[in-house]
Amino acid sequence: MFGGPILIANRGEIAVRVARTVHDQGLRSVAVFTDADASAPHVDACDVAVHIGSYLDAEAVLEAAQRMGAQAIHPGYGFLSENAAFARAVLAAGLTWVGPPPAAIELMGDKGAAKDAAVAAGVPVVPAGDAGGYPVVVKAVAGGGGKGMRVVRSADELEPATAAAKREAMSAFGDDRVIIERYLERPRHIEVQVLADAHGSVVHLGERECSLQRRHQKVIEEAPSPVVDAALRQRMGDAAVRLAAACGYEGAGTVEFIVPETAPGQTPVDFFFLEMNTRLQVEHPVTELVYGVDLVEQQLRVAAGEALTLTQEELQPHGHAIEARLYAEDPATGFLPSTGTIVHYAEPFGAGVRMDSGVRAGSEVGTQYDPMLAKVIASGEDRATALRRLDGALAELELLGVATNAAFTRSLLARADVAAGAMDTGLLERVLAGDEPESLELSTPGDLLAAAALAAAGTAHPKGPWRRRFAGDTSGEHVDVTVRRGEVSVDGTTYAQAAVRPVPGEDGVVRVTLDGVSRRYAVHVTDDVIHVARDGHHLAAYTHRPARAGAGALAGSLEAPMPGTVLLVHVANGDTVTEGDVLLVLESMKMELSITAPRDGTVEGLQLAVGDRVALKQPLIAVLADADGEVTA
């Protein structure tokens, strides 16, 4: 295959995953890392690692490859993976590019040109939007992953939505061009995996259902789709193969389709081309598990010039696989990013469970990169088995130090419509907005604080009653807790038969008994904070209210709801604003958040500029309601 090492131009779970296959093929691997990732798992997963300033620094990545004698570069996904100029530079340097030809990347990376190519290949496309009808969707020409994408439902929304999409597209892709298409209500997002070699062979490995999304970002993916039968699979697969062949594709790629809403129990008839991702997808593990193919190995073999040995006839799905993305986001705060140090981490294991992760105990979760920490994947002989195993794996996953969406995802998977496969791309947003009859539970179970108190009291070895006043991790409100022999009281709620004991051989894990019920908890106790988790739920109980950054700010200042960077400043001190006006825009983990005026008033206390970093709860700005200086918040 290759004689020299493979440089992996990425980080996190995908770099670890690619390194695994590289080593399985008897090859050596080279990692690259930034200051923030000096001790990251992907560094240790590779044979050698080279420091660079940024994963987007193409010149630095090439220099690292040449310095280490690498023969090929695998880009993973994100960063430089769909950068045609970088692919050309790799080839010009005499290295092998583990990806499609630059011309194919360029063609499919331009949504307008890709749409034209799909039409030429006989693939149905979404009709273009026009000024006479709404809703429409504004999409970045060079976009993907929901970045640079806005749904517009009325004419007065079009201009601000377009501006936001262009700004986000420029930030994410360095290209602010957008297109406008008709927006289909309640469609499914179904994509087809393709493989192609340099000898004219193209095959598909079936479809993946990716309809469960939030902010156009996939949350759950599965293979095969619960609504695609063999006939539709062949039609969609044939269309994807035609498009890949037409653009001279090589390697692994994904053709994404939008499928109009169908009645329950019916197989869809129509499908429309959405885009083609010219790289490995985040959700590729579900295809690997259902088709028994290592897609990274196939990428390496194709890049080395080998012909595909897989035939379309033998590529048949077996069983079912479902993947959940584990994000460092707090559902209780509207999925704002969560940052900090992971102080305890233990992965689930068992029949049909696979973990692709890029973190461990001690990992720092900052605001520089995407909030995805890991992928939890489960497979089984049927969909019900895969769902059951995924739920169990999410419950068994132990991660302390940052909030995650694990418990939320379990609640989502337990919905009757999701269990039945009745999904569309807007379902999750409607559920969160309260527009669906079955809601999701976002609150933290009350027993977590009781368990945290018992664990802390056991660490402190008190002689008498142990009392503390905790400040919660999200509300900041104080909660009084008292631990006595045999009971614990949390703000007046008393749990009897209370006891705690360590689990032998498992550091940081205890069994806590409350009201005669014993449960397993992961805990981490310090003088300042107690982290506790069970069944995917997480709580950080502070022994004092965390100090706010920015001493001397005006009382009642609007605080940063998440750590991040100031992306835009729309006002200056002394400006008059109206309730709802956007004052600032923050960016964290690739997400934008607008800070708006709480009511009419005058801006004061602004000391921030574009590019400044802000901490969680840091005072940002105040709005004075009248000349007397009354502050509104």
In CATH, the topology of the largest domain is named D-amino Acid Aminotransferase, Chain A, domain 1
How would you characterize the largest beta sheet?
8 strands, antiparallel
How many structurally independent domains? 5
CATH first level of the largest domain: Alpha Beta
User: In what order do the strands lie side by side in the largest sheet?
Assistant: 13-12-9-10-11-14-21-19
Contiguous low-pLDDT stretches (5 residues minimum) are 628-633
- Using the alpha-carbon principal axes, give the shape: globular
Mean pLDDT over the residues:
91
Number of helices in the DSSP assignment = 15
Q: Rounded to an integer, what's the Rg over CA atoms?
A: 26 Å
Strand content: 25-35%
What is the assigned CATH homologous superfamily of the largest domain? ATP-grasp fold, B domain
Fraction in helix: 10-25%
